[in-house]
Amino acid sequence: MQKVFHTRQFMAGNSPAVRIPVSMAFPKQTKLVVIREGNRIIVEPEVTSLASLPAQFAALRPLHTEERPEFVEAERAW
Questions:
Q1: Residue 1's pLDDT is what?
Q2: Pairwise CA distance, residues 46 & 31, whole Å
Q3: Which parts of the chain sit beneath pLDDT 50?
Q4: d(Cα 76, Cα 40) in Å, to the nearest integer?
Q5: d(C-alpha 18, C-alpha 40), whole Å
Q6: Which residues neighbour 16 within 8 Å (Cβ) at sequence distance 6 or greater?
């Protein structure tokens, strides 16, 4: 079933904005994609796929030092 809500565009600072009801909102911190198709503006959640993995690994590269702490084996009382 499709939900319909009527609203108007307004300005939020220098950007056009649209207010939507809470019942139609995405969860907080959801990354969204906005697509313009002629007279339609489509807002949908960003889809992550395996194609994005190389970029995600590249973003982690500065955090990786390529050094590995030496493993120290502890004495065990078997």
A1: 67
A2: 6
A3: none
A4: 68
A5: 13
A6: 9, 10
Closest CA to 48 of 25, 29, 32: 32
Sign of torsion, CA 32 35 36 40? negative
Residue given tokens 């019942």 in the structure block: 23
Structure tokens at 49: 């796929």
Residues sharing a CB contact under 8 Å with residue 18, sequence separation 6 or more, in sequence order: 7, 8, 9, 10
What is this structure's pTM? 0.54
Per-position b or e across 11-40, b if 16+ CB within 10 A of its CB: eeeeeeeeeeeeeeeeeeeeeeeeeeeeee
- Residue 15: its pLDDT value, please? 95
Maximum CA pair distance of the chain? 74
